[in-house]
């Protein structure tokens, strides 16, 4: 008999889990899959939403699944109806008047935008006021684009990763953008103060203004934001990107343990062993919230477990590399970025060239990269990321590495030497093995690889690596039939 696996949430985590389950059980012989999504359209890649705002990608181009995906993969997909209740005693979830039974339940409910307690941002019903839009979903993108004609003054609340991506996209559309951020420098979670300053200078050269260390105290519809220092930021549109909060309400109402997120162990089990949680709604000690790579690695673990493919599979955390996906800006941050130069247990090097938009910081311990910030130096970012991912010793010429002039040894950098599990495209978490599989299935060009796997369709930083793998395959592998 098949087991009923119900996935609550059809975002990037839920969609990936369904794919992973069907990769292990393609004919639904062991597991039946039901996916419950509250949005009315197919799953899409949230990582690429800033490209939709910028106009470089259409909404259709960021879809994760086509219209007939569910039928082709034996998935019962139900859209446009949110789950109202989990009955753990009877093992059913309620969707409107319908009960959906489960043997295993996976919560992939994601996160919701956090709206600062600024007077006027919400109307009397608790909804966003006219002229205020969150930046979280594909529908949000449509609202932003509809309101953002060239010359429109726009205020972006939040100078984190998503806020800056939205700001760059809007500036590219000709909007007059001001970013309001309560901290003294941008992206404080991923960058140190020096890198934040250089990034702000780079973005200012692209037409974006900043009000750092300032709080919005009041929203004046049609006029903009009044700041706590008494000044005003003109804005006909306010885009809120001030952070997110995990969607834990459904779990909490069902008596499942929650904190900042839904608490899970290394098997991604909640306090109810029949219920798992993955993605932004889950809280695991090794997880960095707000990034897609942990969600996709968690999906693989849960798929191993619910299909019985690998009962010992466990999630031990994710080492992530953060990239800012904004046109004309190349930024990567990884590992321990806040280590100080005078740390006695680390070797820390720093290079700054603000006039040319370049900043590089490298943190090494025992001759290996444990942290880095690289802005405006894509060759250095590629080399340092490879060293970080693979745990390779850094070249002895540290300055050359910081400047992008020292690469890992040729045999180490060769596509043939990369393990199949090596992540090539971090925006879409595409491994070398997936590219090889797609090539053998007939995708023999970079464009067809991109269409099949989405590798290189995010920030574009992996395009050279994808080209190298395709060239290596063409030279060394039998041509696919």
From TrEMBL:
<dbReference type="InterPro" id="IPR023753">
    <property type="entry name" value="FAD/NAD-binding_dom"/>
</dbReference>
<keyword id="KW-0285">Flavoprotein</keyword>
<dbReference type="Pfam" id="PF18267">
    <property type="entry name" value="Rubredoxin_C"/>
</dbReference>
<protein>
    <submittedName>
        <fullName>Assimilatory nitrate reductase electron transfer subunit</fullName>
    </submittedName>
</protein>
<dbReference type="InterPro" id="IPR052034">
    <property type="entry name" value="NasD-like"/>
</dbReference>
<comment type="pathway">
    <text>Nitrogen metabolism; nitrate reduction (assimilation).</text>
</comment>
<dbReference type="InterPro" id="IPR007419">
    <property type="entry name" value="BFD-like_2Fe2S-bd_dom"/>
</dbReference>
<dbReference type="Pfam" id="PF07992">
    <property type="entry name" value="Pyr_redox_2"/>
</dbReference>
<dbReference type="GO" id="GO:0051536">
    <property type="term" value="F:iron-sulfur cluster binding"/>
</dbReference>
<feature type="domain" description="NADH-rubredoxin oxidoreductase C-terminal">
    <location>
        <begin position="321"/>
        <end position="387"/>
    </location>
</feature>
<dbReference type="InterPro" id="IPR041854">
    <property type="entry name" value="BFD-like_2Fe2S-bd_dom_sf"/>
</dbReference>
<feature type="domain" description="BFD-like [2Fe-2S]-binding">
    <location>
        <begin position="423"/>
        <end position="470"/>
    </location>
</feature>
<keyword id="KW-0411">Iron-sulfur</keyword>
<dbReference type="GO" id="GO:0046872">
    <property type="term" value="F:metal ion binding"/>
</dbReference>
<dbReference type="InterPro" id="IPR041575">
    <property type="entry name" value="Rubredoxin_C"/>
</dbReference>
<dbReference type="Pfam" id="PF04324">
    <property type="entry name" value="Fer2_BFD"/>
</dbReference>
<keyword id="KW-0479">Metal-binding</keyword>
<feature type="domain" description="FAD/NAD(P)-binding">
    <location>
        <begin position="4"/>
        <end position="299"/>
    </location>
</feature>
<dbReference type="InterPro" id="IPR036188">
    <property type="entry name" value="FAD/NAD-bd_sf"/>
</dbReference>
<comment type="similarity">
    <text>Belongs to the nitrite and sulfite reductase 4Fe-4S domain family.</text>
</comment>
<dbReference type="GO" id="GO:0016491">
    <property type="term" value="F:oxidoreductase activity"/>
</dbReference>
<keyword id="KW-0560">Oxidoreductase</keyword>
<keyword id="KW-0349">Heme</keyword>
<keyword id="KW-0274">FAD</keyword>
<keyword id="KW-0408">Iron</keyword>
<dbReference type="InterPro" id="IPR016156">
    <property type="entry name" value="FAD/NAD-linked_Rdtase_dimer_sf"/>
</dbReference>
């Amino acid at each position: 008999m098949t087991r009923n696996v119900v996935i609550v949430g059809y975002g990037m985590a839920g969609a990936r889990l369904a794919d992973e389950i069907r990769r292990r059980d393609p004919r639904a012989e062991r597991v039946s899959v039901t996916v419950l999504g509250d949005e009315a359209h197919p799953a899409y890649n949230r990582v690429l939403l800033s490209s939709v705002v910028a106009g470089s990608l259409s909404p259709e181009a960021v879809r994760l699944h086509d219209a007939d995906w569910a039928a082709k993969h034996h998935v019962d997909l139900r859209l446009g109806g949110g789950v109202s209740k989990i009955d753990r005693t009877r093992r059913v979830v309620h969707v409107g008047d319908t009960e959906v039974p489960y043997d295993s339940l996976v919560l992939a409910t994601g996160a919701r935008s956090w709206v600062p307690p600024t007077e006027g941002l919400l109307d009397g019903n608790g909804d966003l006021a006219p002229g205020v839009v969150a930046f979280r979903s594909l529908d949000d993108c449509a609202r932003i684009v509809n309101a953002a004609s060239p010359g429109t003054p726009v205020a972006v609340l939040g100078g984190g990763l998503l806020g800056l991506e939205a700001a760059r996209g809007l500036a590219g559309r000709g909007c007059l953008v001001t970013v309001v951020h309560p901290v003294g420098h941008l992206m404080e979670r991923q960058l140190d103060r020096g890198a934040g300053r250089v990034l702000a200078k780079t973005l200012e050269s692209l037409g974006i203004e900043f009000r750092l260390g300032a709080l919005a105290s009041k929203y004046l519809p049609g006029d903009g934001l009044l700041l706590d220092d008494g000044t005003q930021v003109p804005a006909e549109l306010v885009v809120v990107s001030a952070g997110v909060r995990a969607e834990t309400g459904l779990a909490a109402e069902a008596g499942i343990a929650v904190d900042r997120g839904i608490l899970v162990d290394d098997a991604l089990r909640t306090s109810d062993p029949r219920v798992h949680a993955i993605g932004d709604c889950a809280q695991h000690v090794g997880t960095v919230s707000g990034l897609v790579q942990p969600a996709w690695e968690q999906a693989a673990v849960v798929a191993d477990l619910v299909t019985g493919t690998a009962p010992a599979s466990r999630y031990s955390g994710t080492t992530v590399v953060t990239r800012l996906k904004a046109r004309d800006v190349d930024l990567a941050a990884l590992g321990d970025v806040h280590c100080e130069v005078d740390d006695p247990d680390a070797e820390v090097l720093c290079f700054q060239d603000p006039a040319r938009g370049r900043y590089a910081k490298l943190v090494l311990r025992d001759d290996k990269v444990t942290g880095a910030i690289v802005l405006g130096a894509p060759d250095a970012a590629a080399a340092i990321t490879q060293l970080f991912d693979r745990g390779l010793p850094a070249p002895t010429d540290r300055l050359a590495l910081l400047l992008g002039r020292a690469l890992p040894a040729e045999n180490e950098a060769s596509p043939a030497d990369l393990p199949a599990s090596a992540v090539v495209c971090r925006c879409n978490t595409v491994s070398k093995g997936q590219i090889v599989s797609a090539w053998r299935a007939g995708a023999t060009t970079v464009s067809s690889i991109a269409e099949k796997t989405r590798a290189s369709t995010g920030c574009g930083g992996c395009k050279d690596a994808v080209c190298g793998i395709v060239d290596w395959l063409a030279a060394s592998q039998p041509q696919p039939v």
